[in-house]
Specification:
elongated; 153 residues
Length: 153
């Protein structure tokens, strides 16, 4: 006996497939087929170039994140002109913290997603590139927030 064709979203009617006689004494809803365990699908092969490129990009992302965090240290210099005019130190401190810490959050997220993608054997080389965009965006966001605390005129 062969396996039945897939139902594609339809529920089996309990009727035997076309061309087969009905089972004698079968209960309603019983199709006469035994469910055998399906063989596990073959895993994709490991793409060595993807793993190597992802690791190289992750190392570069760590260097970029350290540099961005170092640049974030200097965001506090936005308060230099606050002696002569009224500034919002809350915005300056928030921008400083965002520029210092958010790049590391982007790095941790990129590393975690890259590892998950490599374990699942999906392409992962672009995840550190997206993480680099996130690190740069976090640094710019910190600059903008700190700049909002300093009046322009």
């Amino acid at each position: 006996m062969t396996t039945p064709p897939p139902h594609y979203g339809r529920q089996p009617t309990g009727q035997p497939p076309h061309g087969q006689p009905p089972a004698q004494g079968a209960q309603p809803g019983y199709t006469g087929y035994v469910a055998y365990p399906q063989p596990r699908p073959q895993r994709q092969p490991v793409l060595v170039w993807d793993v190597v490129l992802t690791i190289v990009f992750l190392v570069g992302l760590v260097v970029l994140t350290a540099f961005a965090s170092f640049m974030g240290l200097f965001v506090v210099m936005a308060s230099d002109s606050c002696g002569a005019r009224e500034c919002s130190t809350d915005f300056i401190v928030l921008g400083w913290l965002v520029a210092m810490l958010l790049p590391w959050v982007a790095l941790i997220a990129a590393v975690t997603v890259s590892i998950v993608f490599m374990v699942k054997r999906k392409l992962a080389f672009y995840i550190p590139v997206l993480g680099a965009v996130g690190v740069g965006g976090a640094l710019i966001l910190g600059f903008v927030i700190a700049g909002a605390g300093v009046p322009t005129s």
